[in-house]
Amino acid sequence: MKPVNSSSAVVLYNRVPKCASTTMINTLNYLKTKLKFRLVNVNVPRIKMFMDAKAQSRMANGILELKSDAIFVRHLHFINFSRFGSKWPVYINVIRDPVERFISYYYYVRYGFQSNQGEVTKKWKLDISPERQNMPLEECVMKDPDKCVRTNSVTMLAFFCGQEKMCREHTDYALEKAKINAARHFTAIGLVEDLPNSFKIFHALLPRYFTTTALIDTPAKDTRTFMKEEPSPLVKSLLRKALRVDVEFYNFIKRRFYKQLDALIKNNLV
Fold it and tell me: What pTM does this model have?
């Protein structure tokens, strides 16, 4: 396993919602100044994460026009660049335990997030009925865990499975395709639960854009989901079953992550 030659391709971080996005963007903003690369962060409320073939082609061409010394960041379902006769970018991402991610997402789309200065940002909230907005997480899950998951989350799988409709569903089809694409096309996928080692891997494979001490060196900018409450162990257990395919994908990536880390350590690259 060797560092990627990123001088001929843009890095594409098609970030998954509620997976340390604020921490990652804050760190990348610090690194772009330190390491002198271009950061293109498309970050607007309710951005469209899937699109038709023409829009995908325009997106692919726009990303690749950035060429070298650039990281493009956007909430974006996986794009198969081969469909458009394009060379591939260097895909990276970060994922999170699906149960913790769902809990955070559930409150986030209802109440926004709060900064460490006490300010609450609500521009990212979804337009949902008062009844749905005010339903406690415990009630939603206890009523019907599968329905609660389907109607209150964006599956993590689509960011690795692709743009087709079936990739936006919690199915074995989406799971298997996400596994294949992750293994074939993603240089590195970090874990929210282990960001220090994630940055070690990013640095080892993409030294043009990352340092191992980036998390420590970056000035703190803390934000957290507003009004978030910790659910009971029973609710978490029901969510883990309802999120079965996302959990299986997470565990697949987690095994890959530590296997990748061990190989880098063995080769004295971290």
Answer: 0.90
HSE-up of residue 203 (Cα within 13 Å, Cβ side): 19
DSSP symbol at 230: P
Dist CA 29 CA 193 (whole Å): 21
Q: Tell me the pLDDT tens digit for each residue of 161-178.
A: 999 999 999 999 999 999
Partnered with residue 74 across adjacent β-strands are: 42
Q: Which residues pair with residue 38 across a beta bridge?
A: 70
Name the DSSP letter for residue 15: P
Query: Any residues with CB less than 8 A from the CB of 185 and at least 6 apart, and which?
Result: 78, 88, 91
In angstroms, rounded to a whole number, what is the distance separating the alpha carbons of residues 180 and 205? Answer: 20
Q: 3-state DSSP call for residue 257?
A: helix
The CA-to-CA distance between both ends of the chain, in Å, stands at 12
